[in-house]
């Protein structure tokens, strides 16, 4: 996969202006540059009355306008309920064989390497404190930034310095080779969003979502919550549970995890729902499907916090703060219980 680096910042921070200066500097180094830019506007770069405009608006779902110097490919998405585009979806539409680096403007909430652009005069909060994927901080107030930021700090008014940082990062990024587990060659290429293919032996690996289980252990109007003892999310709340092992059913995984973490034997669990989740561990992003079960108790058992759990506690559902949970799947599960209890 082509190395990707993004530029994250609030509207008006100068992302486009900076990119306009960076791209020629990177091109001078012989790099072939791709760009993905997210927009919330309903844009149409074509001109009304032109042949391509007329044909597109006649009802084409895809239109390719081809000239000697430029191809323009249009995709039309007419479904009103369509979500905002995901970065992985956009990346698949680029010809990565013709690119050395992809620059991304926007998509600041997605997980990929980013440089934050920050102007203190705009009085907006910094992003890096809540985004571990931000690898550098560029600003027009260097002295002020050094008081709070431990990341590499770059002068927003010195685009050459930022270009040099990207070139250094790119050199490190491009040396991270993927070795094929079948033939052993350093030729395993990533094809977003989930496929690894070997250019040497045609080995193909589909990096599908991993299955996990969550337990909502309830007694009257209380639910048992755990405090995580390890990263990711160390010190934050979670629901008891974990990953499903090979050759294991969801129910077997739930039974094993609750015994490992709580010394608790579950006898009756009811499946409620499943939620997509992202699990970050040692700079690797794992996509998971977290399945949620509810265990309803007549009395509180004696429990022991073990394994990944630092401590457990009973909290009234109505008193739970969802933002204290480490993962979105647990937040959704608890919110579903709270919604049900309020009916």
From TrEMBL:
Its cofactor is Mg(2+). The keyword Cytoplasm does not apply. InterPro entries: MGD_biosynthesis_adapter, MobB_dom, NUDIX_hydrolase-like_dom_sf, NUDIX_hydrolase_CS, NUDIX_hydrolase_dom, P-loop_NTPase. Keywords: Hydrolase. It comes from Photobacterium profundum 3TCK. Residues 204-338 form the Nudix hydrolase domain. It comes from the Bacteria. This is Nudix hydrolase domain-containing protein. One of its GO terms (molecular function) is hydrolase activity. Transmembrane segments: none annotated.
């Amino acid at each position: 996969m082509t190395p990707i680096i993004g530029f994250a910042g609030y509207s008006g921070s100068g992302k486009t202006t900076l990119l306009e200066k960076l791209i020629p500097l990177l091109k001078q180094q012989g790099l072939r540059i791709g760009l993905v830019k997210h927009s919330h506007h309903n844009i149409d770069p074509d001109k009304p009355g032109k042949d391509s405009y007329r044909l597109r608006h006649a009802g084409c779902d895809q239109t390719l306008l081809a000239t000697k110097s430029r191809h323009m490919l249009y995709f039309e998405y007419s479904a009103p309920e369509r979500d905002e585009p995901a970065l992985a979806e956009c990346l698949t539409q680029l010809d990565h064989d013709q690119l050395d680096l992809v620059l991304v403007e926007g998509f600041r909430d997605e997980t990929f390497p980013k440089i934050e652009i920050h102007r203190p005069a705009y009085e907006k909060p910094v992003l890096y404190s809540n985004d571990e994927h931000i690898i550098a901080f560029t600003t027009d107030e260097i002295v002020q930034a050094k008081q709070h930021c431990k990341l590499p700090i770059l002068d927003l008014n010195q685009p050459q310095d930022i270009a040099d940082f990207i070139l250094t990062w790119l050199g490190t990024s491009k040396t991270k080779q993927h070795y094929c587990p079948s033939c052993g060659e350093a030729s395993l290429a990533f094809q977003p969003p989930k496929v690894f293919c070997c250019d040497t032996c045609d080995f193909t690996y589909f990096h599908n979502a991993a299955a996990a289980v969550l337990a909502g252990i309830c007694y009257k109007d209380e639910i048992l919550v755990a405090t995580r003892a390890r990263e990711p999310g160390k010190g934050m709340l979670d629901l008891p549970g974990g990953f499903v092992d090979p050759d294991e059913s969801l129910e077997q995984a739930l039974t094993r995890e609750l015994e490992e973490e709580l010394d608790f034997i579950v006898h009756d669990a009811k499946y409620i729902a499943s939620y997509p989740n992202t699990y970050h561990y040692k700079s690797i992003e794992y996509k998971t499907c977290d399945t949620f079960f509810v265990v309803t108790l007549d009395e509180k058992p004696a429990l022991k916090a073990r394994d990944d759990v630092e401590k457990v506690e009973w909290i009234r559902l109505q008193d739970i703060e969802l933002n204290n949970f480490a993962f979105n799947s647990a937040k959704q599960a608890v919110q579903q219980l709270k919604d049900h209890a309020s009916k």
